[in-house]
Amino acid sequence: MAKKQTPMMEQYQRVKDQYPDAFLFYRLGDFYEMFNDDAVKGAQLLELTLTSRSKSKDNPIPMCGVPHRAVDNYIDILIDKGYKVAICEQMEDPKTTKGMVKREVTRLVTPGTTMDLSGEAAKQNNYLTALSKGDSGYNLAYTDLSTGELKVTSVDSEAGALNELINLQTREVVTEEEVAPSLDKALTQRNILRSVQLQVLNQAEVAYLTQDLTNQGQQRVVALLVSYLLTTQKRSLAHLQRAVAYQLSSFMKIDHRSKVNLELMTNLRSGKRQGTLAWLLDETKTAMGSRLLKQWLDRPLLDQDKIERRYDRVQELLDHYFERQNLQEELIKVYDLERLAGRVAYGSINGRDLIQLKTSLQQVPKIKYILQTLDVPAFDGLEQALDPMEDVATLIDRAIAPEPPISVTDGGVINDGYNHQLDEYRNAMQNGKHWIAQLQEKERQETGINNLKIGYNHVFGYYIEVTKANVAKLPADRYERKQTLVNAERFATPELKEKETLILGAQDKSTALEYELFVKVREAVKEQIDRLQKLAANLAGLDVLQAFAKVAEDYHFVRPELNHDHRLKIEKGRHPVVEKFMGHQEYVPNDVLMGDQTSILLITGPNMSGKSTYMRQLALTAVMAQMGCFVPAQRAQLPIFDQIFTRIGAADDLVSGESTFMVEMMEANNALQNATKDSLILFDEIGRGTATYDGMALAQAIIEFVHNRVGAKTLFSTHYHELTALDAELDQLKNVHVGATEENGELVFLHKVTPGPADKSYGIHVAKLAGMPHPLLKRANQILTDLEGQAEVKPKPVSQEKKPVIPVKEKEPAPLLQEDNGQLELFATKPQGNQSSKADKIAHQVKNLDLMSMTPMDVMNQVFKWQQSLK
Ligand code: ADP
């Protein structure tokens, strides 16, 4: 039988039932309390003391609480860990209410809707995403509640949806019902919270926000997202922008693993921003600019005109140093307009925010002027689009005090001279103060107490304070005791009380009127949110362009020359981040030369010589070029890449628990299945994760596949020396190597990429560099010499594709394959001399047969050959 509960716990339970998946913070006086399971889990997560509410031992109710003043910190901790928090407030004043105080949830804070934007978070977007199944694939909508951005797209598969969710770094996904179990699992693994919104609302807001969309599935997913916000946020969404549909196919596609590999946003080792491309490029001056730069980095463009327009502007800013300096100085003074707009809509803006808004707006005419002096068509549209919103700036300037307090309810926010009535109240207060000063003087003279003083506090109001030593001197009649301190007594007199009423009356009226006026100003600004958001977007764009100009100047980047005919020619290219860490002197620039007839560069060279740096360098250059930035080279002719695929480094995907080799194969497979002739593929030492023959066989097959069927521009680095012979067979493949020389037995890296294959592998030299013991190195050298004497590994002849997609030019057959003289395909023995008998030869071959790398069919074939040759 259920135990009878107190009325309060009954109320608690009623509210809690509505928010089963959230921590319920239940306001009790100065605390927010958690009960039952919430309390047990909350105490653990927040390191609070767990107590018990009920006095009876057999029915204890676990409880813990946080002080209401510090609640934000606790909320942030829970949100960070991926939980939701429902804030349940007292809706009546407990002092004046009989019986149970009414309580309601006023806000549901979730990872996707949190507005904690201090520190680094200010430079990041926090996206909430909604996902729904469409006719084919998924529809996906996202919003950043603090900026009001609202976008929607469609993806064709579950993998595509997941990739986009991860790219957006979304922390919460809203769905209508259960999603595919595999997707659910992937979300859980990545600590992405899934929230269910069963009801799709049909309110005016929804209709407005979806009005520009033509696709029904997209309309529905936006409606779902907005419905979730309307149900959970319980506050104005006036700043949400009408949903804009985008197509992933209009941007360069880089899957999320490749983005991680290329360290675009996060450093592979530290997980931080330092050492990434975003870190290098982010010379923006505003938080909006910084966020936009990340969006551009996340979605490089495909449209040559759009890219060139960015180049034109960067070039202009690069050429006009002083104008650029001025522009930067103005931009520094621009605050985060997007988020200010959000706060206006929420009604959470204060006087200081409005002053920030005004200061920001006041920079706009100066910025327009700078753009006009540049006097080039490049900035025409942009300059005109910058709306200085003088009406708003003037209103704030007139109404709001230059240095207002944070609180908007305690007065001091509105300027003198803005409102006649307010000025009158203020006069009364001012006179009152003057009068108090006079009264103090009068009392001093009448009592002869020179240190008598009149003060004020919130509890007791105005008082006359006299030290204990002097109390005896006071006349008994007028002085009424109010408060006793250690060394002094405080009194009131009828005269003081009368003036107090007047002064405090004026003060109350004044603060109430100030708040009223403040709200009016806020509402007037709210009317203009649309314009504010447009202005913010334009300034953000300008900020990113000036950042590009600055990095172009600082690091000597050049304007890329784009083409559509697969010509890739980079002269003296550099890896911008590695270079920055090294200083300009030491970095060895390298060319990447791939004409329209070259699809694969096969890169050899010792470990640590710079192969993967060379590959990453090209990928970063391509990304930079297509985001509208200049690139680290002396000259760069680039095709526009539709996608970039990478298989770099040996990072285990710890999150999904896949092994290194499996990840390697999956990434390679993704590239092989999806790349086109317009794509860029980077394969770093493919096949390394498995046995030698196995790995080499795979590597060769992959090269052939790319060469014959895909045709993407591909950089393929390998430690399988033997593969360099492939250039005789595959006419779109070129060998290059990263140079190293030996000086006095020491290996010296040159970091210079030159045509042709490397002469050897230098693995033992690198081991020596790493400090391995001398006897071990000596032994390794011995073994190497023996092995080299014994056998030579050669690649299998190139398979004959029936119909290569790219026509292969007829070439002299390479002397690689010598099947006809009876040698094995995979490991040709060194010629034994013509005199050896057939039997000897076969015996030798049998001895060396590597059964483990052969299929039963291979063995059958081989035995058949031997039979034939013995007949
Ligand atoms: P690999 O892939 O051949 O093992 P990496 O590309 O990882 O080698 O390069 C190893 C190190 O060599 C890098 O960390 C960098 O310090 C240095 N390096 C690479 N390329 C260059 C270059 N072009 N100029 C100067 N130093 C370089």
Brief sketch in words of this structure:
The chain has about 850 residues and is of the alpha/beta class.
Note down, in words, how this protein is organized.
Strands 13-23-24-25-21-26-27 form a seven-stranded mixed beta sheet, with helices on both faces. Helix 13 (337-346) runs antiparallel to helix 19. The protein folds into six domains: 7-109, 3-Layer(aba) Sandwich (MutS, DNA mismatch repair protein, domain I), CATH 3.40.1170; 120-250, Nucleotidyltransferase, domain 5 (2-Layer Sandwich); 282-389 and 528-555, MutS, DNA mismatch repair protein, Chain A, domain 3 (Orthogonal Bundle); 420-522, MutS, DNA mismatch repair protein, Chain A, domain 3 (Orthogonal Bundle), CATH 1.10.1420; 561-807, P-loop containing nucleotide triphosphate hydrolases (Rossmann fold), CATH 3.40.50.300; 816-871, no CATH class. The protein is an alpha/beta fold. The radius of gyration is 37 Å and the shape is elongated. A hairpin with a 4-residue loop joins strand 7 and strand 8 (138-144). 37% of the residues are buried. Bound molecules: adenosine-5'-diphosphate. Adenosine-5'-diphosphate binds next to helix 21. Adenosine-5'-diphosphate is lined by residues 578, 586-588, 590, 605, 607-613, 751.
What's the shape? Answer: elongated
- Looking at the structure, the CATH topology of the largest domain is Rossmann fold
Give the CATH class of the largest domain.
Alpha Beta
- Tally of domains: 6
- Rounded to the nearest angstrom, the radius of gyration is 37 Å
Number of strands: 27
- For the record, give the distance between the C-alpha atoms at the N and C termini, rounded to a whole number: 95 Å
